[in-house]
Design goal:
Helices cover 33% and strands 13% of the residues of chain A. By secondary structure, chain A is an alpha/beta fold. Chain B is 11% helix and 23% strand. The chains are: A alpha/beta, B alpha/beta.
């Protein structure tokens, strides 16, 4: 009888960090179809973000303000540089540009209702202004986009501000594609295109190139609107110092800076995840450009891309922004990716929280769709109310933090109130690593 | 008809434009003359009443931009983006026009007696554009709707990625852009062309001397097999 051989321990199967499950499934999908993956939303990879910053709060050397008692103002004025009629917002949280076409009319109405109840602005998108949106938005920013779909001077005059869109964080340097299933009769008519075709949105403006032309274009829009409306310039975060400086030179009243986490209706996955920089890395160079030109707080800076709560708002403002914009978070507040629709998300091969095929127009929540039946699922009044609640919570959260830092206005928050948890965040946000006075690239260790 | 004259050497453009944006009931039917334009940008932009503005000289960028209803005559040449995003009315450039003339124009008629630069009628959305001379490269890029008449020659990449706009060229076309092809002119299209020629001061030019171009519609749906065309 032979001796029993000792059992050889088995190495457990090891998955590659480089070729993870998602990566391998995408390779298989690409191999099967021969076409790149298109999706909605912004960058999903983990990037240095506001979570990597902390507020210090008051201490022996700083006085806090009493919560619930002492005033901490949240209002913001946008566009006083040149516009005769600047915009006054009650909260620095605005709603980012999202198009009718990519979103349903009910979703646009809900955004207008929610923003108006909260005393803030909402923004049109590619495809023009709808009556639903204008009617339900007390303050409406009209996007002036490269495609000029639906652009007309009557709507320009109806707007409260005009946002010249150069780019967006999800796809700086890219145009758009709205697939045929979302080009319904109404969308096609507004965009002056045949129904049901895959519609391309241009990446460049048709009638100007470069910053000198932009200056002339802004002047034209001012002339047409008799210098009444604030003019914003929206850029995707890539070279924020230079882009902000050029936007200011071109005559912008407000600069909107969108980081790579900012959402899109439809773009190639590879574009979303690999072009542009996180908003955390973009704010300080943008503010530096404004300060170098003596224009900080004169030309307002709105930042966006992954803003989720009042802490993010407070951190963005502490780094020097005047306001923030939310897109993805606003859609979630309306009901996007809600577990209520899990059964239907499963049928679409996804799950609540991960649904991003917004371009396909089959959104169970009735938000990123033009399907009349799906659209009905979103009650614009109730959804607008949810958004208003969410905006109120974000504003109050930012106030809680500002009071703890002893600030009587959100705009009094400053970089000195912040420290960073990681070296990357410290270097990007130019605030010291927590517990040290070290800012990589700024101070010696 | 009452004629009002503004001298841009003496009056700021901003005041002139603001006057031109006044209440239609007080402006309708007026003849306005703008002297000494000297290439200023944004002259007579955003008009929205039934007036006739004559610019006595050269205009800079975006002359008559976003025009509605009004007639604007430029007795000289025009800079980039003349009549850009025009909605209705008529803009007549008696000289040459620079780049992106009639860009994204939705309606109305733009007539350029001389040559026009690059990207003429780019992203045209329904207006009529008639060029007496030749046009530069990349004209009618992504043109969506409307009619574009060229009595001279066209540069490279004419009608690239064109949608439903119609292009009529009397001279030579250096090259066509992706998805743009020659069409057989239907009697209806011949009539459209004849009417436009008549309205633009070219009634003596025969529509039969033109070739028509439009979309082959092969790129209307994104397909991987078309990737080489982009």
């Amino acid at each position: 009888m032979s001796e029993q051989q000792p059992k050889i321990p088995q190495t457990k199967p090891r998955f590659s960090a480089t070729f993870d499950e998602s990566t391998m499934s995408e390779i298989r999908r690409a191999a099967a179809t021969g076409i790149y993956d298109i999706r909605g939303a912004g960058a999903k990879r983990k990037v240095p973000h506001f979570d990597d910053l902390l507020f210090l709060g008051a201490s022996v050397s700083r006085y806090p303000l009493e919560g619930y008692r002492e005033k901490c103002a949240t209002d913001v004025v946008l566009g006083a540089r040149f516009a005769k009629k600047p915009i006054h917002l009650k909260t620095p949280v605005t709603i980012a540009g999202m198009s009718f076409g990519s979103l349903s009319a009910n979703a646009k109405e809900a955004l207008g209702r929610g923003a108006s109840a909260a005393g803030t602005s909402t923004t049109t998108g590619d495809g023009g202004m709808t009556q639903e949106e204008r009617g339900h938005s007390s303050i409406l920013v009209y996007q002036y986009l490269p495609s000029r779909y639906g652009m007309n001077p009557d709507d320009l005059r109806k707007a409260d501000a005009i946002e010249v869109v150069i780019g967006q964080g999800a796809k700086p340097g890219g145009g758009g594609m709205l697939l045929g299933q979302k080009i319904t009769k109404r969308v096609a008519k507004m965009r002056c295109l045949p129904e049901g075709i895959d519609q391309r949105s241009s990446c460049r403006h048709p009638d100007w190139t470069g910053p000198d032309d932009l200056e002339i274009k802004i002047a034209e829009i001012r002339e047409i609107t008799d210098w009444e409306k604030p003019i914003y310039v929206k850029i995707g975060a890539t070279r924020p110092y230079f882009d902000v400086a050029l936007a200011v030179k071109a005559g912008a009243d407000v600069v909107v800076l969108d980081g790579m986490q900012g959402g899109t209706a439809a773009t190639q996955e590879v574009f979303i995840e690999h072009v542009g920089i996180p908003i955390l890395a973009a704010i300080r160079p943008a503010v530096q450009a404004l300060q170098d030109l003596g224009m900080h707080r004169k030309v307002q800076l709105i930042v966006s891309g992954g803003i989720r709560n009042g802490a993010d708002v407070a951190k963005a403002l502490a780094l020097g922004a005047d306001a923030v914009a939310i897109g993805t978070a606003a859609l979630i507040a309306l009901g996007d990716n809600d577990p209520h629709w899990e059964e239907e998300y499963q049928k679409l091969g996804t799950t609540a929280g991960a649904y991003d095929d917004w371009h396909e127009g089959r959104d169970p929540a009735g938000i990123t769709t033009q399907d009349p039946e799906l659209m009905k699922r979103l009650d614009p009044v109730k959804a607008g109310h949810r958004l208003a609640n969410y905006l109120a919570v974000m504003t109050m959260e930012a106030q809680v933090i500002a009071r703890a830092c002893g600030k009587s206005h959100l705009h009094n928050l400053e970089p000195e109130d912040l420290v960073a948890l990681t070296l990357e965040a410290s270097a990007m946000a130019k605030v010291p690593l927590a517990g040290t006075s070290w800012i990589p690239g700024v101070t010696g260790f | 008809m009452e004629t009002l004259t503004f001298d841009l050497d003496a009056k700021p453009l901003r005041e002139v434009n603001q006057f031109l944006h006044g209440d239609a009931s007080s402006l309708n039917g007026k003849e306005i003359v703008i002297e000494n334009p000297n290439g200023a940008h944004s002259i007579a932009v955003g008009l929205k009443s039934d007036i006739h503005v004559t610019i006595k000289g050269h205009a800079g960028y975006y002359a008559a931009g976003m025009n509605q209803i009004a007639k604007v005559t430029i007795e000289g040449s025009a800079g980039s983006g003349v009549a850009e995003n025009m909605m209705s009315g008529m803009v007549h450039v008696k000289g040459f026009a620079s780049n992106a003339a009639g860009a994204t124009a939705n309606g109305g008629l733009l007539v350029i007696d001389g040559d026009a630069g690059l990207r003429t009628a780019i992203a045209l959305k329904g207006a009529d554009v008639v060029v007496g001379g030749s046009v530069g490269s990349f004209s009618a890029f992504m043109a969506q709707a409307g009619n574009f008449v060229i009595l001279g020659d066209a540069g490279e990449g004419l009608g690239d990625s064109i949608y439903e706009a119609k292009i009529f060229v009397r001279g030579k076309v250096k090259s066509l852009g992706a998805d743009c092809e020659e069409k057989t002119m239907s009697p209806e299209d011949r009539q459209i062309l004849a009417d436009l020629l008549a309205k633009s001061g070219y009634a003596d030019v025969s529509p039969d001397s033109f070739k028509q171009y439009g979309s082959a519609r092969t790129l209307y749906h994104f397909h991987v097999d078309n990737a080489g065309a982009y």
